[in-house]
Amino acid sequence: MKAIKGVKILLVDDEAHILQFLEMGLINEGYEVKTAPDGHAALESLEKFAPHVIILDVMMPGMDGFEVCKRIKETADHTAVIMLTAKDDVRDRVKGLTLGADDYLVKPFNFEELLARIGARLRNQFPDLLGEVVHGPFQIDDRRKEIKYREEPLALSPTEYELLKFMVLNHGIVLSKTMILDRVWGYDFGGEENIVEVYIRSLRDKLRDKEHRLIRTLRGAGYRVDLI
After folding, report:
1. From the UniProt annotation, which stretches of this protein bind DNA (predicted)?
2. Are 66 and 95 a contacting pair, CB within 8 Å?
3. What sign does the dihedral 37-42-43-45 (CA atoms) show?
4. What is the distance of C-alpha 13 from the center of its chain?
5. What domains can be seen in the chain, in order of their start residue?
6. What three-state secondary structure class fits 142?
7. How far apart are CA 53 and CA 50, in angstroms?
C-alpha cells in the first residue's frame, strides 16, 4: 500500500537507533513522522501532533508502553496503536490488546510487515483517508457505505456491510466469532454467538459462495476471507 498524503505517524521508543531507522524508512514511504524517546514525550506529542498511527515500544524506562497505550486510548481512542516488544510472550500481547492496542509486532520485525500493518490500520480506522479501497475482487467505499464484488454492488444491510468490510480488510487472517462480535456488534452485545453464523450465511448467498471458497470456515477457530 502506498503512503497517503497527510497521514501522521508517531514513533515511540527509547532506543535512538530504532527511532532513526523507522523514521527514515517511513519518511521515505511518504508519511509525516514525529519521534518520542519516552512515554511522557509521546503523550505531549499526542495532543500537539495528533497522529493517525502510533508505533509504541513496550519496554521503556519510567512509563512503559502499556501505561502509555492506556492513556492514549482514554483520550484519543480513534488513534491506531501498534505495539512493539522484544518479548514473544502471549501474556504481553493479550495485555496490550486488552488495553486497547490495535496490533502487535514482536522485535525483531520486518519493515515491510510493519508497513503492511500500518496500511491495515489505516484501512480499518481511517477509511475516509483512503476513499475507495480495493482488495482483490472487492471495492470498499466507506463514504458511500458500499461494497462491490467483481464490479457489482452488493445489496447489504448496515450490519452485513460492517461485517464484510471487517473481514475483507483483514483477509487472510482467521477471525474468531468473539473477535467478530466485538468489532462488528460491539463489546456490550448481549445476544448469541450464532448470530455471526446467520450473517455469514447471508453474505455467502449474496457472494454466490456456495463452496465456501471465499469465506472459509476453520472449525473451532473462526472464519477467514481468501481473495479469489
Report:
1. 130-227
2. yes
3. positive
4. 20
5. 8-128 (3.40.50.2300), 132-225 (1.10.10.10)
6. coil
7. 9
